[in-house]
Amino acid sequence: MKQKHFINSHKGVTFLAVLLMMTWFNQWQNPTAWLYLALHGTYGWLWVLKGQLFPDKQWEPGCSIWYGLYIWAGLSLYWVTPYIITSTNYHAPAWLMGLSTSMYVLGVFLHFTADMQKFMGLRNKPGELITDGLMSKTRNINYFGELLIYLGFSMLAMHWFPILVIVLFMLVIWMPNMRKKDRSLSRYPGFAEYKKRTKLFIPFLY
Question: What is the distance between the alpha carbons of residues 73 and 55, in angstroms, rounded to a whole number?
Fold first, then answer.
């Protein structure tokens, strides 16, 4: 099996996992739980759809069942947010729900649009650097979009642990992948100049 099979299956069942928590803790009247279900649940389905329409090659390598279960266990850390919300009957303030939704929408736009641009660029102009559009100022704008998505989810619990999970993923997976990408792109003419005028991850900052 491939890594993407474990990743896609986990993201695809997130909606059901949150529904199960809402059922177990009887959270049908909790608007924060419903909002989390809507945001993270639909993101999981969108990810699966994205994998069908414009897949990311970095998740194509095969892996053992044990490594696949390791991937599942790691991704399950993201489920700590709905667990906190449903198990404590936490109700986020209205302003936080609005902010979280806005961050989610912006994050989905940046993440999915950048992945589509990369997919089409690699297909139509193989062997060329992608330096325009969303990639013109930030080399990993897709990861920044993903950060906004997960921050939108995690802030709804108003707890430090979900934020720690995001930081852990950034340090262990995201940043090494960004550095690896830079090393791979360094073989292309013009990359040095492109690197000088762009940020690695966060627009205008880093």
Answer: 22
Note the pTM of the prediction, 2 decimals.
0.94
CA 187 – CA 127 distance, rounded (Å): 10
Q: Where are the domains of the chain?
A: 3-196
| CA distance linking residue 18 with residue 40, whole number of Å | 9
> Which of 151, 32, 24 is CA-nearest to residue 97?
32
SS3 letters across 148-191: HHHHHHHHCCCCHHHHHHHHHHHHHHHHHHHHHHHHHHCCCCCH
What is the C-alpha to C-alpha distance for residues 147 and 173, in angstroms, rounded to an integer?
Answer: 12
What gap in Å lies between CA 30 and CA 32, rounded to an integer? Answer: 5
Q: Report pLDDT digits (tens) over 50-67.
A: 999 999 888 999 999 999
The pair of three-digit structure tokens given for residue 107, joined into one six-digit string:
């994050």
Separation of alpha carbons 40 and 153, rounded Å: 7
CB 114 within 8 A of CB 142: yes
Q: Which candidate, 43, 41, 42, places its Cα nearest to that of 14?
A: 41
> Tokens 């090494």 belong to which residue?
176
pLDDT band at 127 (very low <50, low <70, confident <90, very high): confident
